[in-house]
């Protein structure tokens, strides 16, 4: 039950910290060159990475190799998120200089390199958490909280990979996790909370990717469609 609650907390924090910054576009009072969302985004790795670590431990100390892999993936996660935060904030001030090298370089850091580094960290940490979970079982329990958390995370996963333009990374990973979950891990769901959570989440995301493709004939970003 403690792990189930932690999973739900992680999903809620993931949703709030990855969605809220994009919605808080008003200038930050003490330093108006920054937006309020930029300030909130400073908390993103400080909150989420400790939660990733707690999920990673599973009440059992990881091996040195597993710990090193976690650190490398967490470093990619932080590097991508931090690069996106700064480049995106600066890019807001360059809208009248779109023909300059400064704008093009900032755009590359903001929209390409940072997104892929960050999202490689996201899928990599997910794969690592699943690897550890599938090697350990808990006493059978209800999976209601994991399903709720999976719905939240799956919707946000779809949103961030669409808007970041990283569908070539996010969609195949979602399909792989869904297939493994439904074909290989299904009988273990009540004993493996993280497996249940991530399978549900990536199933939801896969369905949303399919609906989006059918509706638009591709994977355009929300901002390209004028939705945000």
Task: Please tell me about this protein's structure.
- The chain is mainly alpha-helical and 228 residues long.
- It has one domain (2-216).
- The protein is 72% helix and 0% strand.
- It is built from 8 helices and no strands.
- The protein has helices at residues 2-23, 36-41, 44-57, 64-91, 101-133, 144-164, 167-183, 193-216.
- α5 packs across α8 (193-216).
- 36% of the residues are buried.
Any key phrases for this structure?
single chain; 228 residues; mainly alpha; 8 helices; 0% strand; globular
Provide the fold topology.
Layout: H1 2-23, H2 36-41, H3 44-57, H4 64-91, H5 101-133, H6 144-164, H7 167-183, H8 193-216
Short description:
The protein has eight helices and no strands. The chain is an all-alpha fold and 228 residues long. The longest helix is centred in the middle third of the chain and has 33 residues, at 101-133.
The main pleated sheet reads as:
none
- Oligomer type: single chain
Rg value: 18 Å
Beta-sheet strand percentage?
under 5%
What would the principal axes of the Cα set say about the shape?
globular
Number of domains: 1
Derived structural class: mainly alpha
What proportion of the residues is helical, as a percent range? over 70%
Distance between the termini: 37 Å
Average pLDDT, all residues: 94
N-to-C SSE string, H for helix and E for strand = HHHHHHHH
- Give the low-confidence spans: none
Give the tally of β-strands. 0
The total count of helices amounts to 8
């Amino acid at each position: 039950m403690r792990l189930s609650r932690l999973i739900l907390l992680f999903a809620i924090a993931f949703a709030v910290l990855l969605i809220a910054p994009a919605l808080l576009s008003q200038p930050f009072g003490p330093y108006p060159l920054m937006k309020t969302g930029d300030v909130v985004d400073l908390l993103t790795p400080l909150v989420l990475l400790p939660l990733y670590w707690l999920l990673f431990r599973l009440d059992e100390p990881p091996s040195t190799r597993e710990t090193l892999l976690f650190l490398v993936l967490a470093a990619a996660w932080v590097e991508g998120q931090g690069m996106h935060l700064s480049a995106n904030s600066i890019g807001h001030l360059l809208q009248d200089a779109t023909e300059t090298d400064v704008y093009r370089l900032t755009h590359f850091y903001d929209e390409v390199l940072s997104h892929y580094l960050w999202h490689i960290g996201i899928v990599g940490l997910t794969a690592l958490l699943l690897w550890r979970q599938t090697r350990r079982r808990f006493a059978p329990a209800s999976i209601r909280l994991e399903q709720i958390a999976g719905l939240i995370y799956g919707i946000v996963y779809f949103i961030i990979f669409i808007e970041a333009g990283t569908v070539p990374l996010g969609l195949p990973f979602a399909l792989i996790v869904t297939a493994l979950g439904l074909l290989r891990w299904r009988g273990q769901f009540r004993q493996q909370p993280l497996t249940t959570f991530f399978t549900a989440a990536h199933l939801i995301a896969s369905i949303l990717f399919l609906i989006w493709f059918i509706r638009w004939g591709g994977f355009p970003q929300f901002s390209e469609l004028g939705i945000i």
